[in-house]
Amino acid sequence: MVSIAIHGGAGVITRSEMSDADEQAYRVDLGRALDAGYAVLESAGTSVDAVTAAVRVLEDSPLFNAGRGAVFNHEGVIELDASIMDGQTLKAGAVTGVRHVRNPVDLARLVMDRSPHVLLAGPGAEEFALEQGVELVASSYFFTERRWQQLEKARSGDRFSAAEIGYFGTVGAVAHDHDGNLAAATSTGGMTNKRWGRVGDSPIIGAGNYADNASCAVSATGSGEFFIRTVLAHEISSLIRYRGLSAAAAAREAVRGSLAGIGGDGGVIVVDRDGQVAMEFNTEGMFRGARDSSGRREVEIY
Amino acid sequence: MVSIAIHGGAGVITRSEMSDADEQAYRVDLGRALDAGYAVLESAGTSVDAVTAAVRVLEDSPLFNAGRGAVFNHEGVIELDASIMDGQTLKAGAVTGVRHVRNPVDLARLVMDRSPHVLLAGPGAEEFALEQGVELVASSYFFTERRWQQLEKARSGDRFSAAEIGYFGTVGAVAHDHDGNLAAATSTGGMTNKRWGRVGDSPIIGAGNYADNASCAVSATGSGEFFIRTVLAHEISSLIRYRGLSAAAAAREAVRGSLAGIGGDGGVIVVDRDGQVAMEFNTEGMFRGARDSSGRREVEIY
Question: Which residue in A62, A248, B115, B204 has the most C-beta neighbors within 10 A?
Answer without folding.
Answer: B204
